[in-house]
């Protein structure tokens, strides 16, 4: 694998299931994008030489360089011990720490052996460390590696703290780091078939505005399967079938009063977001007292589909009630994956239903229903039902998500039925719970539940729990300045 440009790839070059591979002269451009990795090393005789890892910010398995632990007597398809490897002449520029003994656990007990780590350079002005060691690193022979002088980490012999200049020439071309863009353009111009047009895709979507006074008007817009912005002008909308969202769709209104929604009985879903569809609800006040569909919004129910997205912003939801048939504000069907789901600056009041249910992937093979979730600056008041159930089962370590942010929300008098937690996180890879207030929520029960089988990263900062349930955490949860009253 030689002389390639990898730009903002959330993954890595993984040397596994084979020996004696060479990775050299590659330009790996992370550009500070989360999850951008470099090279992960397993097996025997691997060589990683003269590559530039530029602002790669992946962690753990997706570190800029991850040298794995192995399994004793490993079959070829698992993790053969790293041995007789050479990592030399590479430049790590403002990148996250590399890792040694990555994946060390009760099964992967063999640290790297007879590995030469020589002549590598680390320029870093932002991090306090340049490597993490998860097991014994005596089998790695460090020599003549240069590191930025201001680094705080105490390093093993073989690393020298010195003046490393940001204009440092790259190992792959002898040209300054500032010439990266030129190298990228040259590689793009000289790669691929001559007949293939190499143009940046136009990601801008045009949304023609359509005013809809009735449900029939909305159906007419959706039948065209084209991007649209719907402006609601009516007070009551009566729906007799699902709304199939098969293209980017925005729904807004200028009205200040609540809009009454009505559905026929036994309707499975009101809004069904199909593959490549997206739904944005903005500045809406919705009364769901006559919504009888099981799910107000759901992903594609027909089976595996391409990605989709959902945004609910500056909206009010009230009186959605499972006693009348509505079980969930949003429900994710198995085999569907949202690129992102966002709830922001909205109010959920007097709802007797679950808000976000993404727990249908029960095959326990590492599948999950949303890559990124953001729940931010919302009010949940008199909520009866789970706010979030997010599930990723199994011990697969090859996926990045889900990634979850819950920040600056106010929860008041929110409760679940039976022993359910208000928020349940199973197998979530990354979560941040920041600056939220929980008042009189799930008192005497579980407020927030974490379950992790493989390594995860969870952080709680400055949350207030007042007369509310407990946090069931584990060793992967870091807490800072939470207040419990």
Fold and architecture overview:
With 485 residues, the chain is mainly beta. An eleven-stranded parallel beta sheet has the order 18-19-22-25-28-31-34-37-40-43-46, with helices on one face. The chain has a ten-stranded parallel beta sheet with strand order 20-23-26-29-32-35-38-41-44-47, with no helix packed on it. Strands 21-24-27-30-33-36-39-42-45 form a nine-stranded parallel beta sheet.
* Amino- and carboxy-terminal Cα gap: 57 Å
Number of strands: 47
Numbering strands along the chain, what is their spatial order in the largest sheet? 18-19-22-25-28-31-34-37-40-43-46
Helical percent range? under 10%
Profile the largest sheet.
11 strands, parallel
Q: What portion of residues belong to β-strands?
A: 35-45%
How large, in whole angstroms, is the Cα Rg?
Answer: 26 Å
Structural class designation: mainly beta
What average pLDDT do the residues reach? 93
The tally of helices reads 2
Low-confidence stretches: none
Give the secondary structure arrangement, pairings included.
Elements: E1 5-7, E2 13-15, E3 22-24, E4 27-29, E5 39-41, E6 47-49, E7 52-54, E8 65-68, E9 86-88, E10 91-93, E11 98-102, E12 115-118, E13 121-123, E14 131-133, E15 140-143, E16 145-148, E17 159-162, H1 180-189, E18 209-212, H2 215-223, E19 228-232, E20 236-239, E21 243-245, E22 248-252, E23 259-263, E24 269-273, E25 278-282, E26 285-290, E27 295-299, E28 308-313, E29 316-318, E30 328-331, E31 338-344, E32 347-349, E33 354-358, E34 370-376, E35 379-381, E36 388-391, E37 403-407, E38 410-412, E39 423-426, E40 430-434, E41 437-439, E42 446-451, E43 457-461, E44 464-466, E45 470-472, E46 477-480, E47 483-484
Parallel strand pairs: 1-4, 2-5, 3-6, 4-7, 5-8, 6-9, 7-10, 8-11, 9-12, 10-13, 11-14, 12-15, 13-16, 16-17, 18-19, 19-22, 20-23, 21-24, 22-25, 23-26, 24-27, 25-28, 26-29, 27-30, 28-31, 29-32, 30-33, 31-34, 32-35, 33-36, 34-37, 35-38, 36-39, 37-40, 38-41, 39-42, 40-43, 41-44, 42-45, 43-46, ...
């Amino acid at each position: 694998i030689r002389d390639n440009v990898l730009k903002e790839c959330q993954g890595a070059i993984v040397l596994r299931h084979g020996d004696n591979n060479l990775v050299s002269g590659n330009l790996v451009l992370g550009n500070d994008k989360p999850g951008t990795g470099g090279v992960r090393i397993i097996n025997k005789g691997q060589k990683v030489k003269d590559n530039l890892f530029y602002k790669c910010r992946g962690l753990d398995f997706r570190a800029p360089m991850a040298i794995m632990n192995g399994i004793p007597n490993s079959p070829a398809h698992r993790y053969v011990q790293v041995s007789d490897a050479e990592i030399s002449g590479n430049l790590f520029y403002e990148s996250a720490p590399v890792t040694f003994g990555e994946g060390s656990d009760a099964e992967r007990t063999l640290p790297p052996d007879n590995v030469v780590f020589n002549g590598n350079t680390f320029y870093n002005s932002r991090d306090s460390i340049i490597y993490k060691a998860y097991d014994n690193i005596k089998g790695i022979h460090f020599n003549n590696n240069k590191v930025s002088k201001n680094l705080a980490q105490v390093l093993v012999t073989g690393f020298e703290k010195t003046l490393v200049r940001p204009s440092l020439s790259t190992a792959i071309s002898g040209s300054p780091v500032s010439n990266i863009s030129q190298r990228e353009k040259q590689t793009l111009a000289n790669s691929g078939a001559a007949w293939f047009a190499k143009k940046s895709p136009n990601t801008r979507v045009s949304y023609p505005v359509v005013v809809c006074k009735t449900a029939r008007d909305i159906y007419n817009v959706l039948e065209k399967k084209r991007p649209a912005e719907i402006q609601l002008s009516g007070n009551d909308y009566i729906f007799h079938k699902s709304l199939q969202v098969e293209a980017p769709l925005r729904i807004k209104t200028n009205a200040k009063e609540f809009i009454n929604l009505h559905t026929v009985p036994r309707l499975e879903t009101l809004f069904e977001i199909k593959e490549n569809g997206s739904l944005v609800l903005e500045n809406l006040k919705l009364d769901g007292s006559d919504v009888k569909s099981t799910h107000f919004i759901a992903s594609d129910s027909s089976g595996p589909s391409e990605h989709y997205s959902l945004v609910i912003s500056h909206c009010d939801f009230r009186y959605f009630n499972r006693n009348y048939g509505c079980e969930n504000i949003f429900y994710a069907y198995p085999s569907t994956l949202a690129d992102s789901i966002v709830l922001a600056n909205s109010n959920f009041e007097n709802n007797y239903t679950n808000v976000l249910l993404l727990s249908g992937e029960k095959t326990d093979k590492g599948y999950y229903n949303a890559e990124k979730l953001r729940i931010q600056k919302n009010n949940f008041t008199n909520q009866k039902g789970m706010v979030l159930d997010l599930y990723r089962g199994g011990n697969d370590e090859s996926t990045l998500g889900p990634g979850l942010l819950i920040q600056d929300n106010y929860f008041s008098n929110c409760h679940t039925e039976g022993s359910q937690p208000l928020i349940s996180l199973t197998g979530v890879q990354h979560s941040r719970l920041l600056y939220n207030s929980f008042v009189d929520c799930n008192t005497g029960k579980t407020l927030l539940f974490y379950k992790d089988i493989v390594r995860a990263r969870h952080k709680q900062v400055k949350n207030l729990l007042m007369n509310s349930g407990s946090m069931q955490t584990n060793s992967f949860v870091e807490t800072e300045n939470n207040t419990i009253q």
